[in-house]
């Protein structure tokens, strides 16, 4: 039985998304084109791939992808809104996402979103969504100035560990300035830096020393710049242990087996570094589908990387994702 090819990093925007006061909304320009709006400002043009399962499934078949994990588009997180409003947004978004996945439950695996600024509401919405059919949760990498070692966020991550919920961490809400508002530099430099910082927060903030190893957590975009600069972080931890150590018991390299990353790095040399640093069991196929900075055809870098053995390629394309998804791999195991 062949291991299914599983893309763990894709996004959706339901076509039926309602316009709510103070929340990003969807301006439908045609049956197959829309614009995500933030207030009266255009944020991103999107197409039917975001909401039409038939279009999505056709693209998956063209790319040789058996299964997608479908997650929210981060602009809808609403972490900077009142918690009750963010909870309402999460409920609506999550229910609409379930409807999108219902047409092909064996191929589309939904991840929910939660009002992360309020841990009690976040845990409540996670439990509701899991009971309704969501397999995991996507969260942003920070809530305002609170990073992933903030006690409120740690409370939520502990709940995810206790319930066996896979967590996918996506960078978002990058700080703008004249220097990074050119050339999509917020995406080219800000996203890798945001992810790097949040992995360090889990390590140096002592979260991995306190939270159970049962936590399944994956970082988007190859872990950002963290894998490339792991040696620098280790060197700083040893040379300036009085400052850099934080609350961690071990140097950063000790913790690379506590999280996973996706393959959205776009060329074989970068993928090779990622596999060398993280290990072949900690890297999963991701694409950032359907957005233009994602990989198409999905999986081409993994499939074209000659340094990978057949067994390693199978792990990256799907085997590791089966482990990450846990109980939700069962319907996939019966695939021919």
UniProtKB/TrEMBL annotation:
Residues 6-326 form the Amidohydrolase-related domain. Its EC number is 4.1.1.45. Keywords: Decarboxylase, Lyase, Metal-binding, Zinc. It holds the Pfam family Amidohydro_2. SUPFAM superfamilies: Metallo-dependent hydrolases. One of its GO terms (cellular component) is cytosol. Pathway: Secondary metabolite metabolism; quinolate metabolism. It comes from the Bacteria. The keyword Chaperone does not apply. One of its GO terms (molecular function) is metal ion binding. It is an enzyme of class 4 (lyase). GO terms for biological process: secondary metabolic process. InterPro entries: ACMSD, Amidohydro-rel, Metal_Hydrolase. PANTHER family: 2-AMINO-3-CARBOXYLMUCONATE-6-SEMIALDEHYDE DECARBOXYLASE (PTHR21240), 2-AMINO-3-CARBOXYMUCONATE-6-SEMIALDEHYDE DECARBOXYLASE (PTHR21240:SF27). Monomer. Belongs to the metallo-dependent hydrolases superfamily. ACMSD family. This is 2-amino-3-carboxymuconate-6-semialdehyde decarboxylase.
């Amino acid at each position: 039985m062949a291991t299914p090819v599983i893309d763990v990093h894709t996004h959706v925007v339901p076509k039926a998304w309602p316009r709510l006061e103070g929340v990003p909304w969807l301006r439908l320009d045609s049956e197959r084109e829309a614009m995500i709006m933030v207030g009266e400002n255009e944020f991103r043009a999107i197409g039917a791939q975001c909401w039409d399962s038939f279009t999505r499934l056709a693209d998956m078949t063209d790319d040789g992808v058996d299964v997608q994990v479908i997650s929210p588009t981060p602009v809808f997180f609403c972490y900077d809104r009142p918690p009750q409003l963010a909870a309402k947004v999460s409920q609506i978004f999550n229910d609409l996402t379930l409807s999108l996945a219902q047409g092909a439950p064996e191929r589309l695996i939904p991840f929910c979103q939660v009002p992360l600024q309020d841990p009690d509401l976040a845990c409540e919405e996670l439990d509701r969504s899991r009971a309704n059919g969501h397999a995991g949760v996507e969260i942003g990498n920070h809530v305002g100035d609170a990073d992933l070692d903030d006690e409120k966020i740690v409370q939520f991550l502990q709940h995810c560990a206790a319930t066996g919920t896979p967590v996918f961490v996506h960078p978002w809400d990058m700080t703008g300035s004249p220097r990074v508002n050119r050339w999509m530099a917020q995406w080219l430099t800000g996203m890798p830096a945001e992810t790097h910082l949040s992995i360090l927060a889990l390590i140096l903030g002592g979260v991995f020393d306190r939270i159970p190893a049962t936590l399944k957590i994956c970082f988007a975009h190859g872990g950002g710049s963290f894998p490339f600069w792991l040696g620098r972080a280790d060197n700083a931890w040893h040379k300036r242990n009085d400052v850099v150590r934080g609350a961690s018991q071990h140097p950063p390299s000790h913790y690379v087996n506590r999280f996973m990353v996706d393959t959205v790095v776009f060329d074989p040399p970068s993928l090779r570094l990622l596999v060398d640093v993280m290990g072949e069991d900690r890297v999963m196929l991701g694409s950032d589908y359907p957005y233009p900075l994602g990989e198409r055809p999905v999986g081409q870098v993994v499939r074209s990387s000659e340094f990978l053995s057949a067994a390693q390629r199978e792990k990256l394309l799907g085997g590791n994702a089966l482990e990450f998804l846990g109980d939700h791999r069962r319907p996939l195991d019966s695939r021919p």
